[in-house]
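Blackboard transcription, Thursday session:
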Amino acid sequence: NAGVTQTPKFRVLKTGQSMTLLCAQDMNHEYMYWYRQDPGMGLRLIHYSVGEGTTAKGEVPDGYNVSRLKKQNFLLGLESAAPSQTSVYFCASSSPGGASNTEAFFGQGTRLTVV
Amino acid sequence: SQQGEEDPQALSIQEGENATMNCSYKTSINNLQWYRQNSGRGLVHLILIRSNEREKHSGRLRVTLDTSKKSSSLLITASRAADTASYFCATDFNNAGNMLTFGGGTRLMVKP
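(Written on the board underneath:)
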């Protein structure tokens, strides 16, 4: 049982480049989340999804897009990377009932540097 | 701004001592959760307390919730060096049960 898997684990981008971060979960969870974590700060919610084919904006959605074409996958896209997007990105998922009712499971993170 | 805020931001104690961390939040909630993050790793769920509960225990962890003050506390008793980590509280931002948001965390260091 792999849980939540993020790909890639590390990436260096040049300003203006695009990339997609992949999150996959094998727990049949309805809810999935993308967060960013900057040094000395907590996690800030970028986008989330309450089910296949649905997405919603979180606290800091600007500069990012997401898609949930399959229940087990949640993709985070950066169309034109900026240095301000240098961060560690975490994906999480939770079971039906919503994240506030059940625990969320996290991936190990993707460390992204934009130069 | 973030829904939850932890206090203190950093805490250093000796092994065997108790560690208390506090969390304040802004809007009404369904539940409040506490998570732990070891350096360079993802978050791991510790305990969940529902809005109609006032106290909950799990091993050496004790969580309290005061909805009138919009605050929660996490107590780790008889701390160990292995408890060194960052601790975060999390709540549902829009009280809809589907938008989990975190505070800034408390960095706990337990000295052997």
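Lecturer's comment: Chain B has a mean pLDDT of 90.
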